[in-house]
Structure formats: structure tokens, C-alpha cells
């Protein structure tokens, strides 16, 4: 199948890889770069487990073709902490006990970072609306919203 060379930055590191043109950003991250923090739930844009930031904007990595990402900047869950210092939203998820099994958590946190960066934190309802594409089968929604609220201040 046709393949292409794509060069992009992930968590501050530049990568140049040859990928099959049908490869999603999620498969590029997980299978080519070994970054398995972004999860594959539905692989169809319906669960949010694969959420990452592309040039600061929230994206479902499973729906994004890797070959279209020449030159972009991707942030995944592996890129949020600074050394031993967790990102404030990662800490807030711990403080608020905002997960059980943890499978959706990387996507929830990246979605929450997008929510805070774009200023959609005026009320719990606004946060809930923004986060509504991120499914949690353990039902931690109330605590997830609290963690985003805690971080937004
Ligand atoms: Fe991408 Fe479900 S795996 S939205």
C-alpha cells in the first residue's frame, strides 16, 4: 500500500517516520513511537480514549490520519508531567479520586487540558458539555468535572 514520510513533534521530540497512508495518529503513536498512553477504545471517534492535543487543539487520534500531520506538534499523556512534577490536572485526578480502572483517564486528562486552555470552565455544566465526548464506563463523571474545576481554579 502507498506510504509516506511524515515529520512531526511529539511531546517536544521531533520524529520522522514512514507510514502506510491509512495509519491513524493513534496507531502512529502506539505502534511506531511506542507511546501507549493514548488508548484505543472504539477506534471510531465515539469514546474519547484516544484524545490528544494537536497544535494545542483537542483531537481524537483514531480519526486523524498521520500523513496529514506534517510539521504539527502533538501532546499526549506522556508529555504532560515535567520530570517528577505531575501536570496540575494529573494531580487533581488523584486528589479527587477521578478514576477507577483508569483506561479512559489519559483521554479525559488531555480533553480536560483542552477545556482549561480554551476557557470552557465557567460552570460544572460547561465543563460537562466540553467533556461529553469522553466516556467513562466506571462512571466517574462527577469527580472528573471536579478535577477540571480544581485545576481551572
Ligand atoms: Fe478514538 Fe474511541 S478510540 S474515540
From TrEMBL:
Record field: transmembrane: none
Record keywords? Iron, Metal-binding, Oxidoreductase
Q: Which domain of life is it from?
A: Bacteria
Instruction: Identify the residues that the record assigns to the 2Fe-2S ferredoxin-type domain, covering every copy.
Output: 4-80
What name appears for this protein in its UniProt entry? (2Fe-2S)-binding protein
Q: What lineage does the source organism belong to?
A: Bacteria, Bacillati, Actinomycetota, Actinomycetes, Kitasatosporales
Relative to the complete UniProt sequence, the shown stretch is 61 to 213 of 215
Amino acid at each position: 500500500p502507498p506510504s509516506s514520510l511524515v515529520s512531526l513533534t511529539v511531546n517536544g521530540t521531533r520524529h520522522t517516520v514512514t507510514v502506510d497512508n491509512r495509519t491513524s495518529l493513534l496507531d502512529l503513536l502506539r505502534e511506531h513511537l511506542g507511546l501507549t498512553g493514548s488508548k484505543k477504545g472504539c477506534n471510531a471517534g465515539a469514546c474519547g480514549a484516544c484524545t490528544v492535543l494537536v497544535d494545542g487543539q483537542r483531537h481524537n487520534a483514531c480519526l486523524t490520519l498521520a500523513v496529514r500531520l506534517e510539521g504539527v506538534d502533538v501532546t499526549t499523556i506522556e508529555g504532560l508531567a515535567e520530570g517528577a512534577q505531575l501536570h496540575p490536572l494529573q494531580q487533581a485526578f488523584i486528589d479527587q479520586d477521578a478514576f477507577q480502572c483508569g483506561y479512559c483517564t489519559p483521554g479525559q486528562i488531555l480533553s480536560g487540558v483542552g477545556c482549561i486552555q480554551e476557557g470552557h470552565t465557567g460552570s460544572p455544566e460547561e465543563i460537562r458539555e466540553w467533556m461529553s465526548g469522553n466516556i467513562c464506563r466506571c462512571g466517574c463523571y462527577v469527580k472528573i468535572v471536579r478535577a477540571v474545576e480544581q485545576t481551572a481554579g
